[in-house]
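quick one if you have a minute, typing this from the bus. below you get a single protein, a line of residues and a line of whole numbers that encode the local backbone shape. could you go over both lines and see whether the tokens make sense for that sequence. anything you notice is useful, everything is just below.
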Amino acid sequence: MIIAVWASRIPEIKQQAGLNDGELSLALLGLAVGSLAAMQFTGRMVDRHGSAAVMLPAAVFASLALVGPGFAHSLPYLFTALVAVGFGCGMLGVPMNVHAARVERRYGRPIMASFHAAFSIGGFTGAAVGGATALLGLGAALTFVSVAAVLAVLAVAVRGWLLRGPDTVAATAAGRPARERSRGIPLRIVLFGAAAFCCMLAEGSVTDWAAVYLHDARGASGAVAALGFSAFSALMAAGRLVGDRLTATLGTVTIVRGGALLAAAGLALTLLTPWAVTGVAGFAIMGAGLSCVIPQVFGAAVEYDPRRAGRNLGFVSAMGQVGLLSGPVAIGAVAHTVDIAVALAVPATLCVAIALSASALRGAVATRTAPAGTSA
């Protein structure tokens, strides 16, 4: 919700700070700088102090950081404010995923995808709140202060529901002793990071280029072109809501492999058919296919070695963020050099690569995610 509320008021903040497009792009780099730094810093804190201890202050900081951009009147101020927002969101991302995996472990069946569905729902809600306040004539600063206060209070209010004690106790009790500590990043975690990079590069590509492709390559109107990303987002949220049941039935490896192939097929439908309507449908199918990849990869990163869950998840999350940030740039470069359809074939190829590497998840996830009658 923090990111969506901010994004919905970017035009006003741009005008308020007197920025041109290039300066705004530079300011937006602050989000990436803060987020990537926080993921590494917070991973170590989670391993040392536990996810519950880190999550509450991270949530409060992330909420209150939203206030800063509302008062930006220059490029340096906005860049610094967005570094704080990115740092807060990055600092929250690691402990909440580690804690989610711990709750899932205690719950006894897969629910990680539903947690990530809440992320999608928060995005929709934040965009709606930002749009509604703009329609009502409320300034960005007042909007950010109000939302920040509500979210900070909400974060404090739910602190009593967090699980107590260290994160590794439950893992050992569940019969999966923590692996020996390693000085470097294990190869399996590197593979998880590569999968996260591929998945989030594909997501970022659709976010920035779906409407452009449908408009320029398929002749869709502006309204129809906008449906590409909307359909992608809606099916991604829906897929996460049903993903836990599918994971419990089919297992993590099958869900990731099948979902990645479905995503590749959806994008192929978009690229190989000449109609805008099939293009929208293809983006929707792609969203459904990718919906459960990140939840399962993040969960596997936590379960692989619970004693080093923060470090491992911080690495995997950072790889995903690099993909998310670099994807649109890479697609734009290829589109400028060759063609946008050729450029969008890149994320389709990466989806196939995710499917081919899905077997790396086997043995790194809890036995409860395996189909009935089988073991992990």
About this structure: Residues 187-369 form a domain with the Growth Hormone; Chain: A; fold (CATH 1.20.1250.20). Residues 169-176, 366-376 have pLDDT under 50 and may be disordered.
